[in-house]
Amino acid sequence: MRQIGITIALWLVPAVLFAQREDQVFLTKGAPARGNIPAETGMTPDKVILETNVSPRQIEVSEIVRITFKDEPTELNAGRNQVIQKNYNQALTDLKKLDGQKIERAYVRQDVEFYKALCLCRLALSEGGDKKAAAEAMRAFVSKAPKSYHFYEAAELLGDVAMASGNYADAAKYYGPVGLAAAPWADYQMRANNASGRALVGEKQFDQALEKFKAVASSELATPEAVRQKNLAHVGRAVCLAETGKVEEAMTLLQDLINKNDPQDVVLFARLYNAQGRCYLKQNKPKDAVMAYLHTDVLFYADADAHAEALFHLSKLWGNINKSDRAVAARNTLRERYAGSVWAGLE
Prior knowledge:
Strand order of the largest sheet: 2-1-5
Helix content: 55-70%
Radius of gyration: 23 Å
Distance between the termini: 71 Å
Largest sheet: 3 strands, antiparallel
Order of helices and strands: HEEEEEHHHHHHHHHHHHHH
Strand content: 5-15%
Low-confidence stretches: 1-20
Structural class: mainly alpha
CATH class of the domain at 22-70: Mainly Beta
């Protein structure tokens, strides 16, 4: 038995070492692809080239979940895994252990800097981290690694941080043709148009925002993600309709979306009920607006930005209907949980 165990162990060792000596590209579907990503020429914002024993393979970035690199430090792998689990403080702690260490391979250095910047952005968007420092870190990453496969994610995060800071013009830039909208995939472009539309709503440019939302809604793409983006675009349309005096049309559109869609989509339903609350405010119906925003607060709070928006309005509306204790509770939750949100800054 002992000899069999030794034989099995010896048989397993080369496989483990071989895996550690290769780059691995984890995909949205199927097993990870293994090989070597060549220096300088192996990566662009659109695709990654993987040299294998058979032939070079081009993998589109839209199909990539993450990449692990041969001989990467364990702290990077640990930090990356914490990011996947959304434990951004712990991820940052792991990654900062690499500060001052010499990392030879450019792709590995870039990954360290990207994930550190990502953590700073995520914390700035939720826990009240330094939005300026987060944006500077991400811009520094993009400047040093403009061909990184993380480019579009970085652009989107920069847009999100700008939105949270109330810098809607900057957000539109990052979501636009020099950022996320430059991606060659239709679903990315739909996401970029929706994000740009929200930035334009922030600037109160409702007619221009409506054009962005219409571009998404008219797309012929019918994948599940495309359908979801179309639904989000219809919510954006409803907001623009309400803000331009067509509140009844907006309310009909929103109720139709509520009736036809699955409330398991937390982001969609949070935005639906927030938009409904906005319509009720336009109609001077504060009690109805409270009920709409309460849907987001109680049922669809998992979407941080939408929940912060709902809490902001509830902190005002509860006071208007003589529920000052609940107004204070909503305000405190907004400050404690979403200090980095633009909504916390509007109090």
